[in-house]
Amino acid sequence: MLHTVKYSPFSDQSLEQALRYLQPGDQLVLWQDAVIAATLPAWQARLQQLASDGCLYVMQEDLDARGLVAGVGEPLTMAGMVKLVIEQGSPTAW
Fold first, then answer.
1. Can you give the pLDDT at residue 1?
2. Phi and psi (nearest 5°) for 10?
3. Is 41 exposed, middle or buried (0-12, 13-18, 19+ CB in 10 A)?
4. 3-state secondary structure string across 15-73
5. What is the Cα–Cα distance from 30 to 66, expressed in whole angstroms?
6. What residue ranges do the domains of the chain occupy?
7. What is the CATH number of domain 2-7+22-93?
8. b/e burial code for range 46-63 (CB count within 10 A of at least 16 → b)
9. pLDDT, tens digit, for every residue of 14-65?
10. How do residues 76-87 score in pLDDT, each as one tens digit?
């Protein structure tokens, strides 16, 4: 299953909730303000296993818009996001 999180971990519990519900093999996309998590050491440590499993994606356009560089996760463009949705079906949005 594909999960997407768009809210900053500073302002919302969406990422925390999504991580609790992820099952083995699920994929997670961080976009909009959620990309901040991929740049923070405490969150990077929590997300590392997903990244190592190839299940964590971070929207490159959102990183660029914020002047950030992700420390974990695979960069993903909007075209890549569309491909994931086609492959995985409608995502669960947090």
1. 94
2. -80, -25
3. exposed
4. HHHHHHHCCCCCEEEECHHHHHHHHCHHHHHHHHHHHHCCCEEEEHHHHHHHCCCCCCC
5. 13
6. 2-7+22-93
7. 3.40.1260.10
8. ebeebbeeebbbbbbebb
9. 999 999 999 999 999 999 999 999 999 999 999 999 999 999 999 999 999 9
10. 999 999 999 999
